[in-house]
Amino acid sequence: MKVLQLIDSLNAGGAERVAVNYANSLVPRIEVSYLCSTREEGLLKTSLSKDVHYLFLNKKYTLDFKAISKLHRFIKRHGIDIVHAHASSFFLATIIKILHPKLVVIWHEHYGNREKTSSINKFILKISSHFFSGIIAVNDSLKTRSEHKLLAKKVYVLSNFPTINLELKTTTLHGESGKRIVCLANLRPDKDHINLLKAFNSILNTYNDWSLHLIGAFSDDECYHAINGFIEYNKLDNHVFVYGSCSDVHHILRQSTIGVLSSKSEGLPLALLEYGLAGLPVIATKVGDCNKVVSNKDEGILVEPKNDKVLAEALLTFINDVDLTRHVAKKLNNKITSSFSESSTMETLMNIYKKHQK
């Protein structure tokens, strides 16, 4: 079996980390594991195993015929059996399927906010789904939506799994040790960093020695300017730090005290699993499958989305009770290592591949 993971970039986002994790984990399990980044390279390129065969297309346009031809030739030359397309790479995978009819295309749905995408995007995805051999969704709600809205006959649920890279140690967090709140999420509207900033700003009245650390890719767009504007307006420059995309996630989390996600929508966020694996107490919003990771009060705190007051209360709960933070961090760590393991996830993935291999 020869499998290629297809992803639009190697920036340090959730879908991108999943694609890299899958490519690396498949190395000992299949004949050859490949990964293709279509539009951009990025920090995660350094996380790829040397045994993963890598291709970069440098795709410039939606219909970039040079990039399409390059990928088609690559698949034909290497005899690739399965293309596992992640997130927005589905359109290119569909074109390649049309050019190479025997190819198996599995599409991986990571995006919990799919319903809010444009009508044309939904239409293109629906037409493309006719060519998918199967769809993998990261939670039950995305599975149900894919079954009702798309045309693929088989839809599966497969949880993400976190990994640890102990070698990468490049980022040093600002702020006082033991008093750092971290948010591992690209700076996009659905991650609702403004809600988190409002909550954090309110607790500074009592705890002005704590700091907030935003880890994630950003663009020079309205969302970034809103976040930056809030920081400047509220004079938070000495308390809130924006790092951009970072590859040494585990090293960053080991320097942190509390892990937070304030999203309006999610699938099953890899960040929560990484928080738990790193031994952090977790606060997250009740969206997507966050409740499957933090399923009770012994594993963390879940709060309503878009409500900075309850988020601030949750932060204060952990700040004021060190014994509680240790307890929930340990419980969540035990759950992540037992229920979201690499071995169980890859066994399920291999079974999906085998069902569709011709």
UniProtKB/TrEMBL annotation:
<dbReference type="GO" id="GO:0016757">
    <property type="term" value="F:glycosyltransferase activity"/>
</dbReference>
<keyword id="KW-0328">Glycosyltransferase</keyword>
<dbReference type="Pfam" id="PF00534">
    <property type="entry name" value="Glycos_transf_1"/>
</dbReference>
<keyword id="KW-0808">Transferase</keyword>
<dbReference type="InterPro" id="IPR028098">
    <property type="entry name" value="Glyco_trans_4-like_N"/>
</dbReference>
<feature type="domain" description="Glycosyltransferase subfamily 4-like N-terminal">
    <location>
        <begin position="13"/>
        <end position="160"/>
    </location>
</feature>
<dbReference type="Pfam" id="PF13439">
    <property type="entry name" value="Glyco_transf_4"/>
</dbReference>
<dbReference type="InterPro" id="IPR001296">
    <property type="entry name" value="Glyco_trans_1"/>
</dbReference>
<protein>
    <submittedName>
        <fullName>Glycosyltransferase</fullName>
        <ecNumber>2.4.-.-</ecNumber>
    </submittedName>
</protein>
<feature type="domain" description="Glycosyl transferase family 1">
    <location>
        <begin position="174"/>
        <end position="330"/>
    </location>
</feature>
